[in-house]
Amino acid sequence: xxxxxxxxxxxxxxxxxxxxxxxxxxxxxxxxxxxxxxxxxxxxxxxxxxxxxxxxxxxxxxxxxxxxxxxxxxxxxxxxxxxxxxxxxxxxxxxxxxxxxxxxxxxxxxxxxxxxxxxxxxxxxxxxxxxxxxxxxxxxxxxxxxxxxxxxxxxxxxxxxxxxxxxxxxxxxxxxxxxxxxxxxxxxxxxxxxxxxxxxxxxxxxxxxxxxxxxxxxxxxxxxxxxxxxxxxxxxxxxxxxxxxxxxxxxxxxxxxxxxxxxxxxxxxxxxxxxxxxxxxxxxxxxxxxxxxxxxxxxxxxxxxxxxxxxxxxxxxxxxxxxxxxxxxxxxxxxxxxxxxxxxxxxxxxxxxxxxxxxxxxxxxxxxxxxxxxxxxxxxxxxxxxxxxxxxxxxxxxxxxxxxxxxxxxxxxxxxxxxxxxxxxxxxxxxxxxxxxxxxxxxxxxxxxxxxxxxxxxxxxxxxxxxxxxxxxxxxxxxxxxxxxxxxxxxxxxxxxxxxxxxxxxxxxxxxxxxxxxxxxxxxxxxxxxxxxxxxxxxxxxxxxxxxxxxxxxxxxxxxxxxxxxxxxxxx
Length: 572
Fold this sequence. Notes:
single chain; alpha/beta; Rossmann fold; 8-stranded mixed β-sheet; 18 strands; 40% helix
């Protein structure tokens, strides 16, 4: 990945938190592979190529005037991005040598984003060290050129000199030398002079160093830091380690880090999300969405919603569609609601249920409301075939057949789509299938509530609200497995510009406290960027499945937003 010209790789799972790791001078992100391997089961790790290193951009002429500040500013963009994507909005910041100095500077600037700081022999230099690095810059530059010209010999020499290094480090070390910005190396800047920063750090900090001749801190440096009296700083000296502590003494290094992270680096508890008071009882009253046991889920749905009735004065009739094939029964019922007058428009209302549950009649009360919301509509809800008995594209195909039937039966009336959760996913899929058929149906507008679109579940909201309320990652995973059937199937929605452009003017409403939130937002943005007229709302305090609960202020607000959307002119 690249952000403002800075390259980085992301790996691991954000179970305990997020680590942003910065390498030393002339190294690169690949040199952090051992660290990534150690932490990736429990942590999400950003391995960063700092400015002028690896695949990141080179220094500009102006930046070479103060390369350290430029490197800090560039790395800061990645730290902010990583914190924004993390559940706690904080990261553990880790750096070696030059990367340690960069990490320390960022932790001082942005303490509210830093869960903990780990500094491996950081390049906060004494005056003597600063002068030494400047005086030997030409030698270091010649060394980079020699390694680039004779990579094999350089790696062989390194392996003999440092036999204890992890095997993955040797090649990465050489790669870093071939990729570093030569103009930066020529300047001799590898960190920053002075250690006053250790009086200013206000986050839990671990300083790790060795005791060999080339270390920047060692015992004397740790004594200097201890004399500053900052209670936020812990220090560890690992005997027998050189400046490259992690590489020399991996076991001892990780033992120290693991202990520190256990104390100071655990992700903070997430704040309690705001949920509207009228919706809070719904959480307790909603059965677990166990899509793995879809038959039990259906039985619970029938017990909870089986007695739902249409509003007074609403007539119901059913049409059976499909069934043309003798080989397989692909018929289903289209349940239609009307107040008996001549309809002014037609609405296809597609129910949710995670693709594996739900029924059209459960929505009779809501669909009764939609008759008036859409201005005297005939509202038709398909009892589409459910997975896993009928995986993709069965349900979407039933929605296509419903649209074709309605368009043929009511050719002079505008046709709309209203949909919720998996129903919104089916709405998008049906429109895609219609367009791909070469014989699309004219749909005036679409209303998509809390759309369920992406089987990958790789969004921040799926991480934050993986355990609900209501809908969960486990429920989503099982539901998508049932619906797709084939674990290697192409997902029914991909963010292709051509696919997005097929949608009619669309209203998208998402819930703030919902694992599906971000994919709904992303879908709306896909439509916008494809030239579709889009309106999007996130109503405060709403949760998955609660947007259309009868007789709530939330449902009243949703109905008002639909009316306003229908009244808003959209030019062709």
